[in-house]
Structure formats: C-alpha cells, structure tokens
Amino acid sequence: MSTPFQSTGPHIHSQSSIARTMWTIVLAMLPVTGAAVIFFGPKALYSIFGSALFSVVFEYLFKRDGFSAKLPFGDGSAFVAGMILGLSLAPGAAWWIPPLGAFILIAIGKQVFGGIGNNIFNPALVSRAVLLLGWPRYITGWVAPFDSTTTATPLEGLEASYTQLFLGNIPGSLGETSALAILLGAAYLTYKGLINWKVPVAVVAGAVVAALLFGLDPIHTVLAGSLLFGAVFMATDMVTSPTGKTAHIVFGCGCGFLTVFIRRFTHLPEGVTYAFLLMNGSAYLIDRIGADPIFGQVQERVRRVWNTAEVLGAAILIALVVAIVYRASDWIDARFSDGHMTAAVRTIYPQANRIIAMQSYDAAVARYRVYEDRNLLGLFATVDANGYGGAIPVWVGLDPDETITAVRIGPHQESPTLGSAIRRTDFLARFVGTQPADRENLPDAVAAITGATISSRAVIRAVERILAAGDPETAKQAAAASAPLPAVADGTYSGSGRGYQGPIAVSVQVVGGRVDTIEITNHSDTVGIGTRAMDAVKASIIQNQSLGVDAVTGATGSSQGIIQAVRNALENAPAQEEP
Amino acid sequence: MRNIKKFPIGGTHLPENKDLTTDRAIQIALPVNHVIIPLRQHLGVPCKPHVAVGDKVEPGQLIGSNTEGLSARIHASVKGTVTAIEDRTMIDGAPLVCICIKLDPDRDGLDQATQALLAHEEGAASKEIPDAAIVIERVEAAGIVGMGGAAFPTHIKLKGRSDMPIDTVIINGAECEPYITTDDRLMQEQAAAIFRGLEIIRQTVGAQKGYVASEINKPVAIEQLQQEAKNWEYLEAVRLDTRYPHGAEKHLIKAVLNREVPMRQLPMAVGALVNNVQTTVAIAAAVDRERPLIARVLTVSGSAIRNPGNFLTPIGTPIRDLIEAAGGLTDPEAIIVIGGPMTGTATTDLDLPVTKSTSGIVALQPGEYADRSNEVCIRCARCVSVCPMYLQPNRITAFVNNHMLPEAMEFGLQDCILCGACAYVCPSHRPLLQWLRQGKAQAAQQGRNP
Ligand code: SF4
Ligand code: SF4
User: What is the pLDDT of residues A332-362, one digit of tens each?
Assistant: First the structure.
C-alpha cells in the first residue's frame, strides 16, 4: 500500500469469479442434459460429459500452469465449452467424435488464440464446424427419441407438432430438441445475472423477422433445430460476443436472422453454426460501431436514435424489396404451376399447395418436391410420352425414395378407345411400387395392353424415363432409348437431310412396325470418317428403334444428317393403322 | 411499492452491513491528546495559517483562510496549543501543511464545542431566514464544504450562477456505501435540523422545491423524514431503491427528478442543486447559531472493529483515537479504509486525521478484503452492465493499460465517476478502478502540460 493507487478500492468484492461463473453455466445446462438422457438414452451422457472432460484434459495438456490444485477442472471454461459441443452433437455421433471434437475445440478454438478471453470464435462452434466439414456422416446421426431408428429432423422436413417441438421428443442434436429445458436453463442464467435476457430474445426476434420475410412458419423456425439452444448458450457466450449492451442485442438479432437466412437459401439443413461463427467474427466491429452513448450524452442519444431509425428503416426497405422479389418469383411460379402443373400434381396429391422443382438429369422430365405447407408429401415427375396420336402427358407420383406411388395420364390426342385403354386403372396400378433399380424390367413387369400396344408402350417408356431422370447416367441411356420412332405402316420410304457437305438421301424399310434397314442412297460427305459415322448411326437407330442416338464424335454433321433424313422419311410415311 | 425512485440503468446491489451501526446513537469521541488540522480540506487551494507555533487557540478560532482562489476557512476544533505547522503525508500520498494542536489538559467545554454542530434548538424552524447574502456570508465564515466526500466549498455552490437558475434542491441521504451510517443516524436524530437547513438553502438559491432523498434500507430514517416533511410546505421526503451508486450526484438527480445532467456539466445545468445531509446540518448551525464547522459525525465500523458506532468528533482527530473509541481492532491484520469500502482509500497510517469530508472508517478482516488476482478479462460485460455512466470499463482500462489515452478518453474515461461498481463485480478480479484512476491522473497530467 505504498502508493495511493494500490490502496484504492473497491475494498470489497462481489465474490464472483470465472470458475463460479462457469459452473453456474454448467448447472444451467443440466435441464437440457436431462432431456437428452430421457429422449436419447444414457449414451447421451457420454457425448455430453465425454466432450466436456476431454476438453478439460486437452486444456490441461496445453497449459499446465493454468491449473491449480484448488481447481481440479481448471477454471471450468473448458468444461463448459466441451459440454456445449457435446450437447450440439447428434445422438448417433460416433464414439470417437467427443475426443476429436474436444481436441479441435481446445487446440483450434481456444489455444491458438491465446486461451480464455482471447478467442474470437466460440470454441464449441469452431469444433462443430470442423467436424461438420470433415466428418459430416459421423456427427449427424439423427435418431428418433426413445427408440433409435434413423430418421430425419424437423428441419429436414419431419412432421412435428408444436407441442413436440416444445417438449423435445423429436429427433435432433442432444441439447437442442427441448425448448422447455432450454428455457429452464435460460431462466436460471437470467436469475443468476449471467445473461441478459434481451440477447436470446433478440436472437428469436431476428429469426422470426427472417421467417416472416422468407415465408416460413415463425414458430416452427424458432422451435426446430438449435436456434433456441444457440440463443441461450451461444449468443450469450461472453468471450465471443460484443460487450456493449446495444451491440450485444444487435449481435443477437444478426445471429437469428442469419441462421434463418442460411437455412432458407443454402443447402445446409441448419444455419446456427455458421451464422453464429460469422457473427462472432463481427463482434468487435459491432462493438465499435454500436457503442452506447454515455450518461449525460442527451443530444447524442437523440442523434443515435435517429441514426438507428435510419439504418433500421433502410434495412427494412431492403428486406421488403428482397421479400417482394422473392414473393413475386414465388407468385409467378405459382401462376405457372396453376396453369398446368398444380392441377396435374393435385390429381395425385390433392392437398398439395407448394411445389419446388428438383434436379432432373433428363431435360424432358420435370421433377418436383410436393408440399402441404412445410410438410413433404412426396415427389412428382412428368414427361410426355410419344403416343399414337401425339404427346401423352404422363404424371407420376413417387415417395421420397423414388418408389412409384401413382401414375396418371394427362389430356392427350389419342382416340377414345386407345385413351381409355391406357387410362385403365389396372394398367396404371401395375407401375406402383417400382423403383429406379427395376427400371429395366418395367416392360416385362407391365405388359403392354393388347389393342393399344403403341400407346401403352409409350407410357411404359415414359415411366422408365422418369425413373431414370434422378441419376445422370441412367438418364442419358433412357433419353436415348425413348426418342421413339414415329409409328408408321410397313413399307419403304425415302427422305432427305443435310449432311456435312451436302444433302443426304435415305431409303428406310419398315417391317412389322420396326425400322428394318436404312440405305443411304446419296451423299457427298467425306468417305472415311463421314461414311463410318453414317454406318454407326444407322446401326444405332435400327438397334434402339429410336432417333435419340448419339452422334459420332468428329462427324456430327454427317450423323445428324442421317438422323434428319430418317425422320424425314418416316414423317412422310402414312401413319400405321392401330392393329 | 409505490413511489420508490431509482436511476434507470446500471448500478449494483451491495451487501450493506449497515445493521452494525444503524441503531447506535451518535456519541462524542474526543481526541486523546492532539489534533492535526490540514490546511486544505476542500477542493481548491490550501489556506494560509493565521497562527504560529506556540499560540494558544480556542475551539472555533479561525486558523487558516485564503482569499485568493477557491478555498474554505479552517478553524481550530479544540482548545490547546499549536505545537507544529508542518508538512504531513495525507491519504492521497501527497504532503500537505497541517497545524498540530496539543489539547489543553483541562478539557473544559470541549464536549460542548464539539456538540455545537448538533445542538439544534426547538423552534429554530420558525426563525426568519436571513437574506441570501447573509446566509452565504455565514456559510463561508463557518468554512463549510461538501461533507460527503467531494469537499466543494459550499458558499460557492450556494452563490450559483445567474444563467442557471436552480428550481430544486435535493439533500443526498442515499448513503449507498456499505457499513457507513453517518447520514442514516443524522436523519434519524436530526431530521428537524436537516429540513431547516434545506429550507435555508432553498430560499437562498431561490428554488421552488426541496427534497430529502434516502434509500429504503434506512426505514427509521425515512420514517423520521416523512414525519418532519409534514411541517414544511415546499419540502418533501423521497424514497429511493437500494442501489449503488444512488449517492452519486448525477444519479440522484436522475432518480429523483428524472433529469439527466448533460455530459461534463454541473447539476445546475438541469436546475438542480445537491447537498449532503451533514452539510445541510452544518448550514443550519452556521446560519441559525453562527457555529463554524469544527466537528463532524462519522461511522467507525467494519468486521474488524470491536464496538462499531457513530461518533461526533472534532476535525483533526487522529483515526487511531477513533478506532480506540470504537473498542479497537479485533484483528491486528485488519485493513483500515478511510471512507467507504467502495471508494475509500486503505491506509496503514493511523495518525491520519479526520477531515471535514471523512465519512467513515472501516476496518475489514483480511479474508473479507477484495481479492485482486487480476486474471484475464473474459469479456463477460458485467462491468458494462453495472456502470452507472453507461461506459465500457473493460475497454477503457484496456486502452489505459496500452497507453492509448486518446482512445480511452473517446470511450469516456473522463466521464467515469470512480464509483468502483465495475471492479466490484468483475469475475476476473481486475483492478479496474485502480486503472481508471491512473488513467484519469495521466489525462490530468497531459491536460496540464500538453
Ligand atoms: S468506476 Fe467508472 S467505469 Fe467503473 S462503474 Fe463506476 S463510473 Fe463506470
Ligand atoms: S467484468 Fe471483468 S472480466 Fe468481465 S468484461 Fe469487465 S473487465 Fe472483463
């Protein structure tokens, strides 16, 4: 006490300490831990406390000095971070994930930055992000509560009631499913003065605003996934969030908004990890920009209210524009579908109110996911079959595994007899249960209808094509196989096309409804590569009975000339009488 | 509960420990054989001594004054002989000229002279209040300064500024420091004198309203104030919530009037004037009975004090004598703090005298004393949430420690009121208040020689 500075107060202290703070947080996480054990069994304890204890061990190895005999678990911060990591793991995570995650957490999440107080990013989230990138299959083993059958989570489209979401008997990460348990923890932390309740509320508010803008169900958005867990245990993380009061609330809003943004506009099922990490990274910036006015800065406060109002106004305007553009495209979509798609979809899924296009590897096949609100009803795919009298729209309903659940025929030009034949329910019912793997056997399994061979074969080929459209390889084959030749009566027809260097003339002989021979009567293309190509294409057309054959590389002009000439010949031919 | 006022943001709840002394009546504690009277007990320049070594002095005799610059007169507090006029190291570590007076062996009248501060007469309330000029003159003659700690010369405060009219006077009875019950006891025992003093101030500065504000952890005092308030037309008692630091001037105004004193301005800017409870009592004594300020009431308390109590003692009494009057220390290792445990200063020098602004002496057991292990900041923002000035102490101190004074000032170093709430709650036991004081000292230094 030699200098007055050393003897200044406060001479009393609140008795708070880092360790006390950390163990209070551990206590606050006990309700979620309990919920995890109830729903997912005692194995959850290994993930949660295993991660925590491994973190303590690694922390110990990294900085021996920080540990004193008085505090056997160090200051508790490693334990807390490890526990958060454990709670964010899927129930089916592999046994080696906790130690690996703990190592990443301590090494990359914490010590690289210089240990407690210096890390920019939430160590648990860093670890989770690395695990997600490196070992996604091992940390996202979602299982249903009580039994351990594998399943999807509510965010991935599993149906769950609000009550279930609130109580937590749904699949998801160990600690995230039960909103009730999370809220208990939040109440305890608020009571202990360790978190500002406004921060989790800000996260939720940010998420709700985003949900409303992006047309999602706000309650589902908040309750499903780890948003609430993140709001209470991650957005309030001391080290990685801003220290200013307003800044912290802005930070919370950002976390919530970004999470929903990521969920909606990326292919990631959950946005919390990356959203929160991004916000962690901007914490300092937010602190800098959003410093609160000081007591007595009366004018300042007014000015800042205006500034904030302006920024908020601009943000809302931008968000509105985004929303309108988004909504408009949705609306255009909806109109487009109302015109012909929705009606078609509703023949199979009467309650459908939302369809989302999905990847199709066959340009002729359109594939959609069909929803009632957020609820996935199944898939819908369509392609036009080449019927006797023209295109026949074929509509197929599939379950998410791509097994056929229903086939319907759309409006077409076939004669009434043919039309009613292919509409026969016993014929269409034969397709049900077929999977993409059974595609090749389809013609045998679903025999053509006598008296409507061509039309029914066209339908079978169309369904084959639909089944193939989910995979790039099979789609190509199917497309080739199903650009079928127009059905013409037996006879010999001539036609012409444009080759590489001049016209090509062919004579096509049809026997028994099939192209039997193709003779090139005249051409001016190069002998050698040109003629070889023409021979190959000829053979292909005859073998596949289709014009959808590949051109020969290096002689595209000649190949296409042949195809064109054969089409021309068949188009000139009188249509075949239906036997 | 209705009508309990408080400032809206920040602050913290402290363990009050006031029950040790709240019901101990004020008793007189006299110096054993000498007093040491520093020639500066106010904000401003030191007084010049009017006596020489060997002179005999009487209680109340003017022994120091300075007409140049801001100052307040100094009077002898006892009857005795001047034995030395010399530099002594004061609590802030700086030397200051002090007049040492050895008490006369016959201690006749000493009790009475000391008691004069509190000798409020019945019926004083109805006495006519003199003109403002006379009031100010008497206050100046009595050498009254702010007795809550700031030690600003009261006569200057009462003069006010013509461009900033005062409409409300608030008597600060919040007394938010733990252990200290000085104002608490005065409000319990001297409510009439306090209201009389307030009425004098109110009329002197031409205010419409006057309030006495106290925290609800002092129920007896509040009861007394509310009783007394019934006798006064323009005066009122106000109840405050228990929160630290309600006693800070700006926060008191915010709580009572909901007016925010603009940054770096005086309370006058919002038409308010704040006075300490004991200062008000001293004003009443000075105006009604023309008594100079030569004694004060203070609390001697703490877990290491045998018989904690509230004492009326002559200015200049060594704190050793007061600790003895309170039964002595129960623990020789005890840490002695002059002032309250939040903002006071710890010392080992028991020869330091009581001055006009010493509100208490607190002896803490070493186990109770704050641990300042100074661990790394975990950015928990608890310091931010309690700071009554809405500052970010974690950042300001980081700037101070990294010699980034301009940034520290930009983030409000100079607005810090040094209340210590931040350091009190910091889980990392960082000596934030110490750093803030250092930062302010450096800033002042720079201000002096840019
Ligand atoms: S000491 Fe200063 S920085 Fe700390 S809480 Fe008090 S006013 Fe705020
Ligand atoms: S209270 Fe202490 S540990 Fe927390 S932010 Fe302030 S300085 Fe840092």
Answer: 444 444 445 677 888 888 887 777 777 777 7
Q: What are the C-alpha distances in Å from B295 to residues B27, B33, B116, B317?
A: 12, 16, 8, 9
B416 pocket-lining for ligand 1 (C-beta < 6 Å) = yes
**A window 192-211, beta carbon within 8 A of B:** 193-194, 196
**What is the reported pTM?**
0.72
pLDDT in tens, A378-397: 888 888 877 666 678 888 99
Task: List Cβ neighbours of B113 (8 Å cut-off, separation of 6 or more).
Answer: B59, B60, B77, B78, B79, B294, B295, B314
Report in angstroms the alpha-carbon separations of B143 from B140, B152, B281: 5, 11, 13
Of B289, B314, B330, the residue at which a domain comes to its end is B289
Amino acid at A79: F
Residues B143 and B259 reside in one and the same domain: yes
B341 inside domain: no
| Of A478, A497, A484, nearest in space to A439 by CA | A478
Highest mean pLDDT among A209-223, A257-271, B45-59: B45-59
Whichever domain contains B190, its CATH number is 3.40.50.11540
Ligand 2: nearest atom to the Cα of B425: 1
Go through the domains of chain A in sequence order and give each one's CATH number: 17-155 (no CATH), 195-345 (no CATH), 354-481 (no CATH), 491-571 (3.90.1010.20)
Express each pLDDT in A49-94 by its tens digit: 999 999 998 888 877 555 554 555 678 888 999 999 999 988 888 8
Average pLDDT, chain B: 89
Question: Distance between CA B359 and CA B183 in Å, rounded?
Answer: 9
User: What is this model's ipTM?
Assistant: 0.83
For residue A372, how far is its CA from the centre of ligand 2 (angstroms)?
A: 50
Q: Is the peptide bond before A10 cis (omega within 30 degrees of 0)?
A: yes
Its domain, for residue B153, covers: 4-19+120-289
pLDDT band, very low/low/confident/very high, at B309 (cuts 50, 70, 90): very high
Q: Residues B386, B285: one domain?
A: no
Say yes or no: B391 and B264 in one domain: no
Number of independent structural domains in chain B: 2
Are B423 and A239 in contact (CB < 8 Å)? no
